[in-house]
Specification:
Order of helices and strands of chain B: EHHHHHHHHHHHHHHHHHEHEEEHH
Radius of gyration of chain B: 25 Å
Subcellular location (chain B): Cell membrane
Number of strands of chain A: 12
Structural class of chain B: mainly alpha
Organism (chain B): Paraburkholderia aromaticivorans
Mean pLDDT of chain A: 92
Keywords (chain B): Cell membrane, Copper, Electron transport, Heme, Iron, Membrane, Metal-binding, Plasmid, Respiratory chain, Transmembrane, Transmembrane helix, Transport
Shape of chain B: globular
Helix content of chain B: 55-70%
Shape of chain A: elongated
Low-confidence stretches of chain A: 1-26
Family (chain B): Belongs to the heme-copper respiratory oxidase family.
Order of helices and strands of chain A: HHHEEEEEEEEEEHHEEHH
Low-confidence stretches of chain B: 653-663
Oligomer: heterodimer
Pathway (chain B): Energy metabolism; oxidative phosphorylation
CATH superfamily of the largest domain in chain A: Cupredoxins -  blue copper proteins
Strand order of the largest sheet of chain A: 3-2-1-5-8
Distance between the termini of chain B: 28 Å
Radius of gyration of chain A: 27 Å
Number of domains of chain A: 3
Largest sheet of chain A: 5 strands, mixed
Helix content of chain A: 25-40%
Chain lengths: 341, 663
């Protein structure tokens, strides 16, 4: 389901060897140490390499000194002989002096990097408001300059490649955090205030994100995708998202819609129908998304029906109940949901 | 005794104590022993104020909590060993990780160091007891009852579940309706009482009760560490106690400090919590670093290199530790310029740590290592300290922390610093002072085995967490999908954590076996330098038969390291007109006053018990019961403070008969 991810362009790619040869899956979508895909993340990745190199060097030097101290030969001495208190201050002067210089250098590099990633170098091309809910993400494109480009979706963000995008972060309930590591660092979504950060993708792809502030029972299943597309593809996606859902004409689809209105519309919205619930993800174009339930399941008709009927088993204590459906109703609902592309 | 002019009347002493010797076994020494001994049986158990017994209780109780927290961790590790595991429900996992943090950070890490300090301070300072023995007993009882209060929620399935950091609004009534968070809030306020009175006791003991001649540049580094931590506690604990009280009021009384819908601010919680919790992490490591600074030189056969820089670095670390708390909040949306200051301070705080690290390495290098079990733990500690410290430097870099924070990288960092800088010195310290506490030696074989298994298990368990974190694994997730690349590191971590648990088990077996069958230890089996090794093992209840006079940092090594100093340990003030100790001046430790020390009392136990019951009443909203328990607390305080003739600090001018004992 995921597109191939391109490694951050860097001459230090040989350092990836120890990671690549780890007996782990090659695909680690939240990994950010060796891969970055935008100017909000790449300087940080380089800083990470520099700090890691410095820290590994420090540990190695200390280990060597410690081993030397433990293992070095000393002339034999009487059993009750003791050394005097004098001596050894040179160790402290040199050790602390070198450490201080290294720390000051790393501090300087850190501040330079902070300057580089705190703000985009160009003004933001678009603004998206992300509201974090227990345990999903509302994505609001309501700040578009053109009113005909405004819409609401959930759990999947699309952005055009190469454009700095400002994210306004809100929370509807508790503190969450928005994190798409290949594109940027994380920022908390705190109720009562609006935090902002920016992201930018320099290559097309699907970048995974996840909530990274403990927010209760299903914090573990609160992921999202950021899909970066060339501008033309992004415009096409946006135009499709703005469209309202069509009213069904077919008998089974109307049955399915009625089930939806009875059982789901209290929480969910489908623009173009009477369903206008605001507590749960907007489902107008749920079929267009790659995943369901905030990154918990791949989006297939089977998984969607499984989710509807067994939500509490898949994501226990989430706010989606398990909806009991007869086989006939399940088929009808599934058919209706399949039209929501 | 050059400090005291022989024929000048010293009115502050009111009675000039005689100078003499009290040999072991003499009739007078026997009388002194009887004065200080607690009653046998349960009566003595409840009423003792002997700092040595209280210290042991702190250590044993802290270890019980360590085991509880460890079991919580092992259950979580089984859950996380593989993806999509269903061993635990989300709620169970959330309670486990919350209680694991609370237990380790509050019920183990500080109390175990309080235990060491309680036991050792009077002995290394040349004093008879702490400044406030009954307050000492109170601080233990309140700690015990607060721990029981917190754990009573577990069998009811209502343990705190919003993380040890307990952020609002998740911990507010709206999102957490059960009593879980109320247990945490009230338990913390209660525990804060214990820590606060304990800190007061340490500070005053340091200022008043050192042996003559123990100027502040002769203090053991353990004393510097605990003193610094205690002073910090007095400033930091009010913040967290207030925060938890405010949270409890929001939840149960209807205030709106943190309630967003009514003008409250979630960030206020974060600031109030971290302004306490960051200094707290230095509180739980500085005394342990002091243990290493004092005990390591014994096994290097030379005094510590750089005593003064190490002492100053202890204080400097704590002070800088008060201006770094926002590094726990780098991702909260605070302006980058402000973050830059805290990031800089967080980076530079490693400089005093570097002072200590190089002091330890130099001490080993220039000394002649003796590879006994305590030394192994201290040597291993140095490397764990550095690994934990450098991962901290990585997280101090603000933009990189925006990636690292709330991932397993931080979990790796915090365990390297907490296990490396607290647990390893504690294990080494127990092996080191076990002969003094019990009069028996531990088994070298079992001890070495426990060291290697613990060291290997710890590193196999926690080093891969750095990798998990760099692979993007968030914290506090009860499970994870199979295709995230985290499977292998999690499995290795789980295996390592079980190996580490085996190492701890071997340690406990060693302690249990040695208590029964350890070889008898003499006064000074390690040939140590400090005053505790000049008294028998275990020490008599009065610690020192006569008040020692200290002339250097290493009193028992003076004749062999040729400093020309001559401490006087065999002959000194004989203070046996009741329970007495010597008060000295704050900086230079010149004799100043005879202090009357309280004997055993049930008041601390009763006050601790009724305070805990008061908090139970508040938890249950049983206000009438709360009134009764508050009144009972008042009665216990009255009992405590009731004037006693034996405690009058000014004696009549008439010289007492020497040897009649009581007034």
């Amino acid at each position: 389901m995921r597109l191939a991810l391109t490694a951050g362009r860097s001459k230090l790619a040989f350092l990836t060897v120890p990671f690549v040869s780890l007996p782990a899956h090659a695909d680690a979508p939240l990994e950010y140490f060796l891969h970055s895909n935008g100017p909000a993340a790449t300087p940080t990745m380089h800083l990470g390499w520099g700090l890691t190199a410095m820290c590994v060097a420090v540990v190695v030097i200390i280990a060597v000194l410690l081993a030397g101290a433990l293992l070095r030969r000393r002339p034999a001495a009487a059993p009750r002989a003791l050394g005097k208190e004098e001596g050894g201050l040179g160790w402290i002067y040199v050790g602390v002096g070198v450490s201080t210089l290294a720390l000051l250098a790393s501090l300087f590099y850190t501040l330079v990097t902070l300057q580089a990633v705190a703000q985009p170098s160009a003004p933001a091309g678009m603004t998206i408001t992300v509201t974090a809910y227990d345990w999903w993400w509302k994505i609001d494109y309501g700040d578009a300059a053109d009113p005909s480009h405004r819409f609401v979706t959930a759990n999947e963000i699309h952005i055009p490649v190469g454009v700095p995008v400002k994210i306004g972060l809100r929370s509807a309930d508790v503190i969450h955090a928005f994190w798409v590591p290949r594109l940027a660092g994380k920022t908390q979504a705190i109720p009562g205030q609006i935090n902002t950060q920016w992201i930018q993708a320099d290559a097309p792809g699907v970048y995974r994100g996840q909530c990274t502030q403990f927010c209760g029972a299903q914090h573990a299943h609160m992921a999202f995708d950021v899909v970066a597309q060339p501008q033309a593809d992004f415009d096409a996606w946006r135009d499709a998202q703005v469209r309202q859902a069509k009213a069904p004409v077919d008998g089974q689809l109307r049955t399915g819609q009625k089930i939806f209105m009875d059982r789901c519309a209290g929480c969910h919205a489908i623009r173009g129908s009477d369903a206008a619930g605001v507590q749960a993800p907007d489902l107008t174009h749920v079929g267009s998304r790659k995943q369901l339930a905030a990154g918990t399941l791949p989006n297939t008709p089977e998984h969607l029906l499984d989710w509807v009927q067994h939500a509490q088993q898949i994501k226990p204590d989430s706010l989606m109940p398990s909806i009991a459906l007869s086989a006939q109703d399940a088929t009808a609902l599934s058919a209706y949901l399949a039209t929501l592309r | 005794m050059a400090d005291l002019a022989p024929n000048q009347p010293d009115l502050r002493l009111a009675r000039r104590p005689e100078i003499g010797r009290l040999p072991q076994g003499s009739a007078r020494e026997q009388r002194l022993r009887e004065l200080w001994e607690s009653e046998p049986g349960w009566r003595g158990w409840l009423s003792t104020v002997d700092h040595k017994r209280i210290g042991i209780r702190y250590i044993v109780t802290a270890f019980i909590f360590l085991i509880a927290g460890g079991i919580e961790a092992l259950v979580m590790r089984v859950q996380l060993a593989r993806p999509n595991s269903h061993l635990l429900s989300p709620e169970q996992y959330n309670q486990l990780f919350t209680m694991h943090g609370i237990t380790m950070i509050f019920l183990y890490a500080l109390p175990v160091l309080s235990g060491f300090s309680n036991y050792l301070w009077p002995l290394v300072l040349g004093a008879r007891d702490m400044a406030f023995p009954r307050l000492n007993a109170l601080s233990f009882w309140v700690f015990l009852f607060a721990g029981l209060f917190l754990y009573a929620s577990f069998p009811l399935g209502q343990a705190p579940d919003a993380g040890w950091f307990n952020y609002v609004p998740l911990s507010s009534l709206e999102y957490n309706t059960g009593p879980n968070v109320d247990v945490y809030a009230l338990g913390m306020v209660l525990l804060g009482v214990s820590t606060t009175v304990g800190s007061v006791n340490f500070v005053v003991t340091l200022l008043r009760m050192r042996a003559p001649g123990m100027s502040i540049d002769r203090l053991p580094i353990l004393v510097w560490g605990t003193l610094t931590a205690s002073a910090a506690n007095l400033v930091a604990i009010p913040s967290v106690s207030l925060a938890f009280l405010m949270l409890w009021l929001d939840r149960q009384v209807g205030t709106h400090f943190f309630d967003v819908a009514n003008g409250g601010r979630p960030m206020l919680w974060q600031h109030m919590f971290w302004i306490f919790a960051h200094p707290w992490v230095y509180v739980v490591v500085l005394p342990a670093m002091g243990i290493v600074s004092d005990a390591l030189p014994t096994f290097c056969r030379r005094p510590l290199v750089g005593y003064t820089p190490v002492a100053i670095s202890t204080v400097a670390t704590m002070m800088i530790g008060f201006v770094v708390w926002i590094h726990h909040m780098f991702a909260t949306g605070i302006a980058p310029l402000a973050l830059a200051f805290f990031g800089a301070a967080s980076t530079l705080i490693s400089i005093p740590s570097a002072v200590a690290t190089f002091a330890w390495i130099a001490t080993i290098w220039l000394g002649r290592p003796v590879y006994r079990v305590p030394f192994l733990f201290f040597a291993g500690f140095v490397l764990m300290f550095v690994i934990g410290g450098v991962s901290g430097v990585m997280t101090a870099a603000v933009p990189f922390d925006w990636q690292l924070t709330d991932t397993y990288f931080v979990v790796a960092h915090l365990h390297y610093v907490l296990l490396g800088i607290n647990v390893f010195p504690v294990l080494g310290g127990i092996y080191y002072w076990f002969p003094k506490f019990t009069g028996r030696m531990t088994s070298e074989r079992l001890g070495k085995l426990s060291f290697w298994v613990t060291l290997i298990g710890f590193n196999v368990g926690f080093f891969p967490m750095h990798i998990s974190g760099l692979l993007g694994m968030p914290r506090r997730i009860y499970t994870y999908p199979a295709d995230m690349g985290w499977d292998t590191t999690n499995m290795i971590t789980t295996i390592g954590s079980f190996v580490f648990a085996v190492g701890i088990l071997i340690f406990l077996i060693d302690v249990a076996v040695s208590l029964r069958r350890g070889k008898p230890a003499g006064d000074n089996p390690w040939d140590g330098a400090s005053l505790e090794w000049s008294v028998p093992s275990p020490p008599p209840p009065y610690n020192f038969a006569v008040v020692p006079v200290v002339a250097s940092r290493n009193p028992l090594w003076e004749d062999r390291i040729g400093e020309g100093a001559r401490s006087q340990l065999e002959e000194g003030f004989v203070l046996d007109h009741g329970r007495e100790a010597l008060g000295t001046t704050s900086l230079d430790a010149r004799p100043d006053i005879i202090l009357k020390i309280p004997s055993d009392s049930y008041a601390p136990f009763l006050l601790g018990l009724f305070s805990a019951l008061l908090f139970v009443a508040m938890l249950l909203h049983a206000w009438i019961f709360a009134g009764f328990t508050a009144a009972a607390c008042g009665a216990a305080i009255l009992l405590w403070l009731w004037p006693e003739r034996l405690l009058i600090q000014r004696e009549p001018q008439r010289v007492q008969d020497v040897g009649t004992g009581h007034e």
